[in-house]
Amino acid sequence: MISRDVIYRIIAPLLVFGALYLGWEWVAQNLRSILPPFGDITAEFARRPLFYAVNLWATLSNALIGFAFGAGAAVILSVLMVYFGFLRMAIIPVALLLNVTPVVAISPALIVAFGFNAIPHIIVASIAAFFPMLINAMAGLSAIDREAHDLFRALSASRTEIFLRLRLPSSLGHLFAGAKLSIISAMVGSVVSEFMGTSKGLGATIVLATNFLNLSQMWAAIFISALTSLVLVGIVTLIERLVIRW
């Protein structure tokens, strides 16, 4: 008898993907101006793998650098906000403003300021990665066991010792959850920022395909972007399992 765990984790997702595939193919066969068949998408990728690899690297490198800067800044600010409460009142409104500002609106201003290079795209990816990590890191660093904290204080532990031995280990779950959201946001921000100001990257590939109504190229770039995000999340999840063993 098949266990519930196998049904929930394997069979159910496969059934959903199968239904989506059949629905996609039906639309592709009857409304080819809306969706291309999967066969055309895979053939497009197989025809020009180097083209997609080069553009993927352009997008991925900007996303990873942006993630490093955005998530790193968020963790540092979260630590400061935990220890200096007045900073929370000053930083959170600015972070919210950045989070609700559309990256498409920011990109032109950054291109004017920094030129047609990778810097505007890295900044957009950093902004996109910043808020998810900030919220999760702040929640994790703040949600500590009060009894354990009081015990550390009773033993005359310093702030550094409390942070390294209590706050940081307790917050790892939140930090990795934030990292997963941030790295996806950085990838999305990198792709969207490439809609203008560059001829390289998956975003530029999507725009070029849209201009020429090349649906196969457009969806190939979209699927590559989505699969890359899944791989990045998988890598973060693997690191999480290696680090958090309890």
Automatic annotation (TrEMBL):
InterPro entries in alphabetical order: MetI-like, MetI-like_sf
Domain of life (superkingdom): Bacteria
Tagged with keyword Membrane: yes
Membrane-spanning segments: 7-24, 64-87, 94-116, 122-144, 172-192, 218-239
Main location: membrane
Domain ABC transmembrane type-1, residue spans: 52-240
Coiled coil stretches, renumbered: none
Bilayer topology term: Multi-pass membrane protein
Subcellular location: Cell membrane
A single Gene Ontology CC term: plasma membrane
PROSITE patterns in alphabetical order: ABC_TM1
UniProt keyword terms in alphabetical order: Cell membrane, Membrane, Transmembrane, Transmembrane helix, Transport
CDD domains the record matches: TM_PBP2
Pfam families, sorted: BPD_transp_1
Keyword Transferase among record annotations: no
Signal peptide from the UniProt entry: none
Listed GO biological process terms: transmembrane transport
Family, per entry: Belongs to the binding-protein-dependent transport system permease family.
Name this protein carries in UniProt: ABC-type nitrate/sulfonate/bicarbonate transport system, permease component
